[in-house]
Amino acid sequence: MNMRSDKVILTDVDGVLLDWSYAFDSWMMRHGFSLNNPDAYLVSDRYNIKLHDAKWYAKVFNESAWIRKLPPFKDAIRYVRMLQANHGFVFHVISSLSDDEYAQHLRTKNLRELFGDTIFEKYVYLDTGAPKTDILKQYENSECFWIEDRVENAIEGQNLGLRSIIMSHEHNKEYDTDIKRVQNWKEIYEIITGE
Description:
Blueprint: E1 8-11, H1 20-30, H2 43-47, H3 51-62, H4 76-87, E2 90-96, H5 101-115, E3 120-126, H6 133-137, E4 145-148, H7 151-159, E5 163-167, E6 180-182, H8 185-193
Helix pairs in contact: 4-8
């Protein structure tokens, strides 16, 4: 891989950079659904619907105009910008959004509008819910930081020689792992920079 891996941060988007759950819940309620279990990760558990239907709704949402206007996740904008401006980091996005090119375009526009045009050097979009293993293998043993909220993906990255950090949520708090866990981007900033 031709890059300075010490200045590249790999990052998931939903639940890390953008608040997908908030937007998706708003969209579902607008379509007549009641939130059953707000702490659950799986849409099927959150709304007490069949898994097949839940996957369909998530895909439809991810390919809708709503994906263009997701709000930032917590303090992501401030500290992501500081990592670039103060320390020269660039970010590679790895997101299981959709294989629809128009949805991908809308996500890119959303990220650029919120974070700026120079923060993200690379955007990799996979189909809704798709595994990230093949993409992460491209960074194997690079020791890049890998920011993710899905524990399985964080573990996969750790096993491939990345420095995984898990963004904590109610849906992942029960997982027992030695991977660093954070509540916000301020903590990530401190881990990465030592400040």
